[in-house]
Write a structure and sequence with these properties.
Elements: H1 2-21, H2 26-35, H3 41-66, H4 71-93, H5 97-121, H6 151-171, H7 176-186, H8 191-216, H9 221-241, H10 247-269
């Protein structure tokens, strides 16, 4: 019972960051399941994938209401990623634990560096940010320019989804940690929209991998349900905060969070923790 309560309380924090930053929460849950709850690497990634789905659904519902997402971009990205997620799961079952955690640390560190650069380049509060004309005639959302889903633009979205899907299945994360920086870099989508759009894709591309992990019997359902009990309301609150936090601050928070997670994973694999 104590384990359930602790996992639920931690889940609130996971959900808060998920809704705010557009991540599924796997970058937090995998290290936590591994270090705090003693799951092996495969169980940690599998249980994380399972928990990501309800967490991301909660956040994306709020983002949809606030019009801080691009549904068509998220849908296309998620469907592309869903095709490759099972391949990532298969690769994880054939890899040693250190390889899975090492891969997680590397991609998280890369995303952190990318976001720090974006944060430094972002205008400070009070400055007028130049808005690039991003190629979707989905309507104008909260002052951001509409974009057109041209073939070239769709190809970029699909490519981002494929990369995120492979990583999602392999390391047990939703893929938001890589999608948000790529949305901003390759598609020129502001972070406020990138966060909500990412959660749509995360929800979709996590499903195939989760189903495969269920069939393989790798999920610790008690911990997953406990974490979701806290992350669902947490994600709703986090998504509500997106409009209130400055773009530059969002980027720094995202980058700092990712850097800490990468360092924790490396320290654990080197035997410096626990």
């Amino acid at each position: 019972m104590a384990t359930f309560i602790i996992a639920a309380l931690v889940g609130i924090v996971v959900g808060l960051l998920s809704g705010l930053l557009g991540i599924g929460g796997g970058t937090i849950m995998v290290p936590l399941f591994r270090l705090a709850f003693g799951l092996d690497p495969i169980q940690a990634t599998a249980t994380s994938l399972f928990t990501i789905i309800p967490t991301s659904v909660s956040g994306l519902v709020k983002h949809a209401r606030n019009k801080t997402s691009l549904p068509r971009v998220g849908l296309l990205c998620g469907l592309a990623g869903a095709c490759l997620s099972p391949v990532g799961v298969w690769a994880a079952t054939k890899s040693p634990g250190w390889a899975i955690m090492g891969a997680t640390a590397l991609v998280v560190a890369y995303s952190s560096i990318t976001m720090f650069r974006k944060a430094l380049a972002a205008p400070k509060k009070g400055e007028q940010e130049k808005k690039k004309e991003v190629p979707e005639t989905q309507g104008r959302q909260e002052g951001f320019p509409s974009i057109k889903l041209t073939p070239a633009y769709c190809a970029k979205v699909a490519l981002i989804g494929v990369v995120a899907g492979l990583l999602s299945g392999y390391v047990g994360v939703g893929g938001g940690f890589i999608m948000v920086p790529l949305f901003m870099t390759l598609l020129s989508i502001p972070m406020r929209l990138a966060s909500g759009t990412s959660l749509i894709a995360v929800c979709i591309l996590s499903v195939p991998g989760t189903i495969e992990q269920v069939l393989l019997g790798n999920i610790h359902f008690l911990l997953g349900i406990a974490m979701a009990a806290g992350s669902i309301p947490g994600a709703f609150v986090g998504a509500s905060m997106v409009k209130k936090v400055p773009e530059r601050t969002l980027r720094f928070v995202f980058a700092g969070f990712l850097l800490v997670m990468a360092l924790v994973l490396v320290a654990n694999e080197l035997g410096l923790i626990g």
